[in-house]
Design goal:
The protein is mainly alpha-helical. The chain contains three helices and no strands.
């Protein structure tokens, strides 16, 4: 995908920079002293860190932009609460007869254990 091709391109650019730096610092004899080697390694590390920092900045900017877009969508979304149906208050009166069977109570199992209170 795009990130893989970007990564491959960044790797090629980094290798090219390292090779150019090495060619500039390596004497024609092909041997490097300790200071030249340190300079090459430091340049390679600096280039790699700079490249990684640029990639991280791009990714962070893309994520920040996506978060901002999603925040705007959430702010624009209007979520209405569901309508609630209220029931009338029930008054229990002794003079009203109930013809409903109490089957629900009858089907409960017997409790033979003990309960702590």
């Amino acid at each position: 995908s795009d990130s893989e091709s970007d990564s491959e391109t960044n790797t090629r650019v980094l290798r090219s920079r390292i090779i150019k730096t090495r060619r500039a610092l390596v004497p024609s004899s092909g041997k490097m002293d300790q200071d030249q080697l340190r300079t090459v390694v430091e340049a390679a590390i600096a280039n790699a860190l700079a490249e990684q920092a640029a990639i991280n900045r791009q990714e962070r900017n893309a994520l920040t932009q996506r978060i901002n877009e999603l925040s705007e969508q959430v702010a624009a979304a209007h979520v209405a609460p569901p309508t609630v149906q209220t029931y009338a208050t029930i008054d229990i009166r002794a003079d009203v007869r109930c013809d409903e069977p109490l089957d629900a109570v009858k089907c409960l199992p017997e409790f033979d254990g003990s309960q702590e209170s």
